[in-house]
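Handoff note, outgoing to incoming analyst
You'll be picking up this chain. Sequence as last confirmed:
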Amino acid sequence: MEHVFSVGTIKELSQAMPESGTTVFVLGHSIVGDGGGGMFHWQKDSLAEPDFGTVVANIDTNHGRWKRLDSGSVNVRWFGAKGDGSDATLAIQRALNAAKLGGSVYIPSGIYSITKPLKIYQGTALHGDGLFTRLHYSGKENTGCICSATPKQSCSFNFSKLNVEVFTEGAWGFDLRGMSFSRFDHLSVHLRTAISTAYYGPGDGQSPYYNLFSSCHIAGPGNEKENGCVGFNFTFDQDIQRQSANANQIVGGHINSVQKGIVCYGTGNIFYGQVLEQCNDGYVFALMPGRLNDASKGTVNTIAGCYTEYVKRVIVQQHASCVVNAELTHTTGYESVFDGKDKSNCVVLTTHDGRLEQSRSFIHRRIDLKID
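Most recent structure output, in case you need it:
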């Protein structure tokens, strides 16, 4: 029978020799009880790369590793993330690296300061506890708090129950480059400064495509008339300016206090059951600059069952070839439901009775069914 002994921290584990016993219980990562502890077992022939959380080397020998015994999600506390507002960038990145061959990474409730983009790998799921898992992002402009480690490839991920707070002008919550066939569930993005974006998604011909966003909530910093903030920015590539985000689905969620709720240059995107409040523009549909002179051009996108309140311009069509099919459950507090270049190929349905000019639908028709 083998005895299990204990040490206080990961550092102490790195100094423990296997002659004392091949199974060790560690009481914490940096201090006892900080959530980073767990059971480790000595593997004498292992040369795995130490990651300071799941694999620990002994300081006195090159051969053999202490490996964590746990088959569940990788916990960022294992790598030293404290959740007390201190910088957790390196610790969370090490956790994501530990799951780079596929797996789940868990961020418990707490405040985690992030100073540069967190890179996530193909097949990884990143999840937290909801609003109380707060990632405070203060990285450079034109970067996102969470991004793909391989943005030039099309990869699939899963994100859920996180609260990303953006504190840098020109920065984003999620950088969607390289993300396709991915799920974004029960997420909150709080834009704490002007000129920031929750989801930034320029197209490259293969991403961001076929993503599902469900119950994703976005809040801006106020002053929606001029804060420069965007909820979803499905913009175009910066090289030939001919690619954008296609065939994404946004289901539910609440967007408020941003200048533009959704900007969409792509096609085949569906926006279903959203609530937009306190926005200057709700849905903005535009054509990529590189296609303006094409003989064949245009986009088609659909809005269904959406509610808007105090959105100045609910739907904005910036180019005549951007076809919009929309059915709105209710609109109130607006200046125009549709501000467009050409309504001939668009269908926009509202539930108003037409007493106000700005509340009339393009198709104003009532069908009475008489059943004998």
